[in-house]
Write a structure and sequence with these properties.
The chain is α/β, with parallel strands linked by helices. It has helices spanning about 15-25, 40-55, 75-85, 105-115, 160-165, 180-190, 215-220, 220-230, and strands at about 5-10, 30-35, 60, 90-95, 100, 120-125, 145-150, 155-160, 195-205. The chain has one domain (about 5-205): Spore Coat Polysaccharide Biosynthesis Protein SpsA, Chain A.
Length: about 240
């Protein structure tokens, strides 16, 4: 029996995608790996086809199953939940701007199996200087603690427990949203599960590589929120 399936949604950002996929495929753990290609450009798509031959992961081109333009995170999550539930295992989400370590997945699985009533377990993110960074800037003190957190967990590098997956159907996710990590984290708490942030499991995060316009949030927040509202981008 598998411990987990791991998924990576991909929308271009070719250089970080390469790093993400290679790190996961070289990681330890009893898992199957699925890459969901969300209407990437030809160069990225061609890389994914060749990488699949090299690393032997499962590759799903969303253009084969939907006509809805990117982002299709809801569809990805629904398909991934179905696979995980059928295999009776956890669901891991590692996004295409994250680079894990060799033991990241096994360490997260250990937390899932040893902590009380877990719903969502997240690895903390760091920058190239090894400092905690977005979306976990609120953690100021370095430690190896596993924190039962009241904060929402990002899907940067996260495991969802089999019990939680069986209790909350992703078919209930809203059609008018693009991203669901905050909502799903809150649903986990509402259902009585604990969400854990593993401060000692650090993964490199290179934020917004697939959505570079989001960097406006820090450089020009007025323009960012105008684009968010009027172009209906980044709906959480």
């Amino acid at each position: 029996m598998l411990d987990a399936i791991i998924i990576t949604p991909v929308k271009d950002s070719l250089e970080t995608t390469k790093q993400t996929i290679e790190a996961i495929c070289n990681a330890d753990g009893n898992f199957e790996y699925y890459v969901f290609n969300d209407f990437s450009q030809t160069e990225t798509k061609n890389y994914l086809i060749e990488a699949q031959k090299q690393f032997n992961f499962q590759l799903v081109h969303l253009e084969d199953i939907t006509n809805t333009p990117s982002p299709n995170y809801k569809l990805v999550l629904q398909n991934a939940q179905k696979i995980a539930n059928n295999k009776k295992c956890a669901l891991g989400i590692i996004e295409s701007d994250v680079v894990i370590k060799k033991d990241t997945i096994t360490n997260l699985i250990t937390i899932l199996s040893t902590q009380k009533n877990p719903g969502v377990v997240g690895a903390i993110t760091v920058d190239n200087a090894n400092n905690y960074n977005f979306p976990y800037n609120f953690e100021k003190i370095k430690s190896n603690e596993v924190v039962n957190t009241i904060h929402s967990l990002s899907f940067c590098c996260t495991l969802l427990s089999p019990d939680f997956l069986l209790q909350f159907s992703f078919n209930e996710l809203a059609d008018n949203k693009d991203w669901f990590d905050v909502f799903i984290s809150r649903q986990s708490k509402k259902l009585g599960f604990n969400n854990y942030l593993a401060k000692g499991i650090e993964v490199l995060h290179q934020p917004h590589s697939s959505r570079p316009w989001k960097n406006l949030k820090y450089k020009n927040p007025v323009l960012y929120y105008m684009k968010k509202v009027f172009l209906k981008r980044d709906r959480i």
